[in-house]
Structures are given as structure tokens and as C-alpha cells.
Amino acid sequence: MRRPLKIAHCIDHSARARCEDRFTLLLPVRETAGKNPLKKNEENKKLCQFSSSIPAKHITDFSFPMAPEPRYDDFLPSDKQSFVPSAELVARHQSLKWRNICGIALVHIWGMYGLWYGLQTIKWSALLFIIAYGWAGGLGVTAGAHRLWSHRSYRAKWQLRVILAAFFYAAGLTTIHDWVRDHRVHHKFVDTSADPHDINRGFFFAHCGWIMTGKHPMVIQQGRKLDMEDILRDKVVSWCDENFYFMKMFFCFALPTLILRYVFDEPWWLCVGTNMVRYMISLNGVWSVNSVAHYFGGHPYDKNIRPAENWFVTACALGEGWHNYHHVFPFDYSSSEFGFKKNNATTLFINFFSLIGWARDLKTASKEMVQRHAARCGDGTY
Ligand SMILES: [Zn+2]
Ligand SMILES: [Zn+2]
After folding, report:
1. Do 76 and 137 belong together in one domain?
2. pLDDT per residue over 301-311, tens digit each?
3. What coarse category fits the chief subcellular location reported for this protein (predicted)?
């Protein structure tokens, strides 16, 4: 297995701009107006050091800002002043998306029915199959749309990208392009009005309410500004997204239902109901990262942000609950400093494909970097 790259980062404006242009996954950095940016750079350089074992090209490729005590709403006042949303954006923001509301209600009613009656009659083999299918869908989101496409925390051969795209559509969300755009905006403007699932608007809004209403004008504005060229260039993603309805209907609904019917010989009502249970649990697992992991848990790496370390979300979302760490070090392919330990099934999955050569350039934060950041910004529990 290829060893993950150990990366130490140092802030300077050129490195930040370069990285922001390429991946647009950076945390917003405090406005420097009225301050001396050169002095700030010097301060940050003292706080950072490069690992001598890393080739220079890797360091310049993945520079990462380490501004002391970042404050994520600092960008808003100036941005708000210069941004006057159009009447169309305001109207869209205030509207309810009835199609999504009805769809989510239907999935939960059908899912609860399937959960109540299905568990009493379903065969063990069919139950194990649907659990495995649910895990596959989860991995499509965590290892695919999240760690690969949103954060570029590792590289994947086309064969693995095809598998991940199919898995992603099994989870039954939106297109990969839209998921990645929303997630990059979430990281860049976390817990502000420009965050698609801003936790300050309440637990329910961050969980699934944001899908039921129009987007805040700031979310649309910042989403349009993002550089999504890497996603548009990915042929696997482009093909799947162009065939969105076919991909979602086939991998999320038709395939698991037909396998339950013709391989496990279950009655039709049970096939549909069981798949709906899987879909309901999978949706809530993904949503819990935006709600539960932004609400409950400790902040050992950065006490200034809402994302928290949450073991429950980690168990539900295949390793995505170490969310305070993830928001501080979003480039880390493991989304935590514990590797595949502590319920990180997604890391185990990526490690396996790294072993067979389909995943490479796994990036991770160095121990010293994590300790330094935790000592400076953490809540003291690290
Ligand atoms: Zn988050
Ligand atoms: Zn992320």
C-alpha cells in the first residue's frame, strides 16, 4: 500500500490563491483590510514548518491556510454590502419545494411501514444483502462525492470512479456535480448565510429542511463563483450526471428491488418496502453529518467552529463523524487522524483500493501539524 503523503502547510497569499483557484475547498480567511498582511504572513510562517520528506511539488500543490483562530463570518459584512440579491433570487429563497417535501414524506412513511412489517418476515440473506447495498450507497457518498470529488484527498483510476459513481447514485441524492458544489460552498462558508445547510437556522433546517426550501441568495451567489472545472472535466461524472434520472431510478430503486425479487424471491411489497427502509436510513445517515455533527460533540482541533467530533455520526456515516477534524483538515483522505480505526469504514475502503493500485496520492495531515493546530485553536481536550 502506498504510504499516505504527510503534508505540512504554510499560509501565504499566493499559495492560498493557487489552492483556492484549483479546488475551492478552503476555509474563509479573516479579512486583512486595515491590518498588515505581510506581518500576518510572517506570523503564520513561524507557526508552520515543512516536512523534509515531502517532495516540493506536493507541498505547493496542496497548500492550506492556517490562519490563527479563523472566524468564519468575517467575510460576510463586506460581501453583504456589495451583494444585492435580485427579486428572483429572493423569491426562490422564500419558496417551499413541494416536490421535495412530498418525496421526503413519502420515503419516510413508506420506510416506516417497511421497517415495521418487513423485519418480521424478511429472510436473513435478503436482509444482509440490503444492508450491504446501503453500505455501498454510503461509500459512494463518503469515498466518492465527498473525499474524492469534493476534496480531491486522493486520486482514483477510472475503474474506481465508475464504481463510486454507481454507488453514489444508489444513495439516491442529487447529481455528483451539485453535491460537490454545495459541499465546497459549505466548507468555504461554514455556519454562515452562504452555507447551504447553515446550522444557525436550526437542527431541522441543517438536517433536511434546506432541501425543502429555496436556497439563500448568498448560497447561490457563492456557488456560481466556485471553480468546478475539475468536475466538469471528469468524464465518468459528466456521463452519469447527464443521465441523472436513469442512474437514480436504476441504482437507487430498480436494481435493489429486482435483486430482492428475483434473487431472494421475496414478495413485491416486501422488496419495495425493504428498499425504502434502506433509502430512508441512508438519507438520514448522510444528513446527520450536516445536523448532528454540527450540533453535538467536542472541538479538540478548533473551538471557533460548530462542526464537532461525534462518534454516533461516525457509526452512521461510515467514518464521517470526526467533523471538527475534517473542517480543519479537509484535504485528509481519512477525515480523521485515527486512520481506519474508530469506525472509519470509508478509510478502510480507500486503503483497500490503494493496495490494489486503483487509489493513489492519499493525503493526510502530519501529526505535528495536527498537534500544533489543536494546541493553538482547540478547546483543550486534545
Ligand atoms: Zn460540515
Ligand atoms: Zn467535507
Report:
1. no
2. 999 999 999 99
3. membrane
